[in-house]
Amino acid sequence: MIPPRPYLTASLPGIGGTIKESCDDFLVEEIPAYQPCGSGDHAYLIVEKRGITTLEAIRRIARHLNVAERAIGYAGMKDAAGVTRQTISVEHVKPEAAEGVELDGLKIVSATRHTNKLKLGHLKGNRFRIVVRDIAPHAGEVVPAVLEILQQRGVPNYFGYQRYGSQGNSHLIGAAMLRHDWQGATDRLMGEPEAVRDEQWRAGIEAYQRGDLAGALELFPRHCRSEREVLQRLAARPDGFERAFAVIHPRLKKLYLSALQSWLFDQVVEHRIQQIDALLPGDLAWKHVNGACFLVEDADTEAERTRTFEISATGPIFGCKMKQPAGKPLEIEQQILDNEQIRPADFDMGGGLRMEGERRPLRIPLEAPSFRIEGDRLELEFSLVKGSYATALLREITKNF
Fold it and tell me: Is the distance from CB of 387 to CB of 394 less than 8 angstroms?
């Protein structure tokens, strides 16, 4: 279990509460980077989905419209929890053939022509409306105080637990991969018994840990497709961990490496949480207007731009080509890599598994927050830039995770 990261608002108590008791308690709406122009070969569909992922929504729409999934573009991934409104693009489909379509778990709200396919990142951010239930009586004093601090200093740009998989161990698989520790990667893939609730699944993990590969294969649930494929190869050759792990789809392997990058970045945010709105000499500063970075030589000179949220310090999405800072920021980042026994060059694993890396701001602006409290129920609205997570804000208010 990953311990909670420190809070920027640690001086204020949490309000507790529960989130996502129903789909309607968690609403997300994409803020588009641009509007469709009304002409072109692509239909831009605003899709409202409930309880299904973006990829599942795309599968259902592709099947209904009789198009290949690769002909559909999207700007951002949304998970299954809650109600989300997002835009997807479909090539060579008439808008009138899609508008108003309702399928299991989704409906197409509108359809307009445009000239290009949507690609990942083609959005400004997301607008959230979230309900927190069973909150503490002191919420009326705490919520506005937390929001004021976050508006002034920024929201810590943690990735958080949602990046580490259902068992919270995806980053550990990625770390073992970088070390070429294939048995370690396989052990982490199979997981720990206490991390799952299903009794049969738990028994399957325990069988694997005892070395009973045939028993584990029989017990692992059918939806654990990767685990079962690895077990099948191991059963044929128990010492062939590298060969067995190779059966995992490259897309999943990249997810494990991405989870590791997120884990390492979150450690940098944790290390600098109390000075998250300050720059150090040697920082690579992020320009919020366009995402460009520059090396900070004199932090005092840049203090006003930092205060007005024009720029912020960045942290590493480690990779084999990531630009490095200097001075104290470099020392912090290098120490984190050393602790994990990883070098930047390790992120170029070959075979399509090359993670080049990039920089990411340590904080993000909180835009247009508002809230309403009725009894033990908080309704919270706010916007965040793309690539950031609502949990980064919610955890500061609830102190639950």
Answer: no
The domains found in the chain, sorted by start residue, are 34-120 (3.30.2350.20), 182-250 (no CATH), 272-364 (3.30.2350.20)
Continuous H helices in 179-314 = 182-190, 199-210, 213-219, 225-236, 241-245, 250-271, 303-307
How is residue 358 written in tokens? Answer: 């990039």
What is the sign, positive or negative, of the torsion defined by CA atoms of 167, 18, 384, 141?
Answer: negative
Q: Is 0.85 topped by the overall pTM?
A: yes
CB 252, CB 338: distance < 8 Å: no
- Are 284 and 314 spatial neighbours (Cβ–Cβ below 8 Å)? yes
Give residue 47's identity as a one-letter amino acid code: V
Catalytic residues: 79
The C-alpha atoms of residue 295 and residue 169 are separated, in whole angstroms, by 34
Give the whole-angstrom CA distance, residue 154 versus residue 141. 20
Partners of 351 in the beta sheet? none
Number of H helices, E strands in the chain: 13, 16
pLDDT tens-digit map of 83-112: 999 999 999 999 999 999 999 999 999 999
- Token digits for 76? 């951002």
pLDDT value of residue 1:
61
Virtual CA dihedral for 330, 272, 79, 70, nearest 10 degrees? -20
* Structure tokens that stand for 212 in this block: 């009973």
Pairing mode, if any, of strands 26-32 and 123-133? antiparallel
Closest to 279 in 3D by CA, of 156, 362, 396: 362
